[in-house]
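Progress note, sequence design subtask.
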């Protein structure tokens, strides 16, 4: 059983993979990953410098994704804000969700990466595996290994408290 998120960067530096066990059914976790109102509730860390101000996700194949993040201190985002956009390319509730991820804070803001969530029931829990790939062309790509474990921990805390 994985109680805290385990995260690796693949040897070719093209992907960050983070996984953990969450004591909640896949349906609850999938809803937390696809409901815009829930996403903005759990994705924000009150202690972090950045705040998600807007999260729009159309939960369907081909649906659009748009995230607006603000950093009033400029600590993480020198411009003070970032917009991430994407499109849902895999949608199989409550097992799989994948979307492209194009962020204005990337060194190449026109490069699409891919975020894929896999939810596997394991008794009374769910194994959650998140893979963020297509990172190799971005010099900062492997730095996602520092951020995703925190995001996964927020999801775990939110899903287990509901």
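Output:
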């Amino acid at each position: 059983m994985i109680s805290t998120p385990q995260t690796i960067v693949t040897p070719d530096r093209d992907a960050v993979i983070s996984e953990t066990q969450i004591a909640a059914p896949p349906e609850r976790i999938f809803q937390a990953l696809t409901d815009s109102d829930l996403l903005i509730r759990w994705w924000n860390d009150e202690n972090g410098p950045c705040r998600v101000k807007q999260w729009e996700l159309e939960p369907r194949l081909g649906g659009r994704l748009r995230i607006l993040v603000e950093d009033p201190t400029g600590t993480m985002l020198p411009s003070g804000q970032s917009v991430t956009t994407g499109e849902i390319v895999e949608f199989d509730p409550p097992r799989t969700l994948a979307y492209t991820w194009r962020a204005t804070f990337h060194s190449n803001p026109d490069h699409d990466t891919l975020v894929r969530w896999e939810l596997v029931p394991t008794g009374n829990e769910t194994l959650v595996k998140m893979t963020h790939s297509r990172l190799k062309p971005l010099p900062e790509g492997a730095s996602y290994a520092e951020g995703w474990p925190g995001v996964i921990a927020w999801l775990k805390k939110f899903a287990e408290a509901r």
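The longest helix spans residues 144-161. Work on this subtask will continue into the next period as scheduled.
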